[in-house]
Specification:
about 200 residues, three-stranded antiparallel β-sheet
Length: about 200
């Protein structure tokens, strides 16, 4: 397996911090070689093959970050999802008798996607990333859409399975949130671990 070109880092403390971080994130193992030359540190890291068939699903750091990303996505989806269901319950209680079931299922999904994209666009624009509005929108759509769709479908399926219809009942909110969180989490981990892509 090919070796990366040695990276020269001045300062033992900086070297130690970087090396520990590389070990923690799975970029370098404890057995990888390192040496010190002339008071300066030099690290030789074995590059991981991008063609490797093995994938590391055990990185705690990546799982933690994926969970954070998924939580933000869940918050955005929940605003539109629960808001639409609540509106059906409060103002259009007979909606399932006057409109097709597909409409009552599709509308909460669409509104959930809209509010999630809006929230993530705001985070990317006003947060530490400081992207322009157009860049933030494109990032939110391109890097989060699969996660959002799977999340919305999982929440809708849970609601329908437990209530027999699209009904806003307090006891079903928790199961919907749990399934909405769990369903896209492995995908978000995989995307973050393999490509280093995150929407927040």
């Amino acid at each position: 397996m090919a070796l990366l070109r040695p990276t020269r880092i001045t300062g033992l403390s900086k070297f130690g911090s970087l090396y520990r971080k590389q070990i923690f994130c799975g970029l370098v193992s404890q057995s990888d070689r390192f040496s010190f030359v002339g008071g300066k540190s030099k690290v030789q890291v074995k590059a991981k093959s991008t063609q490797s068939s093995e994938f590391d699903w055990t990185c705690k750091h990546t799982w933690k970050q994926a969970a954070i990303n998924t939580s933000w996505c869940l918050l955005g989806c929940s605003i539109g999802e629960f808001g639409t269901l609540a509106a059906f319950q409060l103002y259009y209680s007979d909606v399932q008798t006057i409109t097709p079931t597909l409409t009552t299922i599709a509308l909460p999904v669409i509104n959930g996607l809209i509010t999630s994209v809006a929230l993530e666009t705001g985070i990317l624009h006003f947060g530490s990333s400081r992207l322009t509005v157009s860049e933030a929108f494109k990032t939110a759509m391109g890097m989060s859409f699969i996660s959002m769709v799977s999340m919305e479908l999982a929440m809708e399926a849970t609601d329908y399975a437990l209530t027999g219809g699209m009904q806003m009942q307090a006891w079903v909110i928790a199961p919907m949130l749990v399934m909405g969180f769990i369903t896209p989490l492995p995908f978000n981990y995989w995307r973050l671990k393999k490509y280093g892509k995150s929407c927040h």
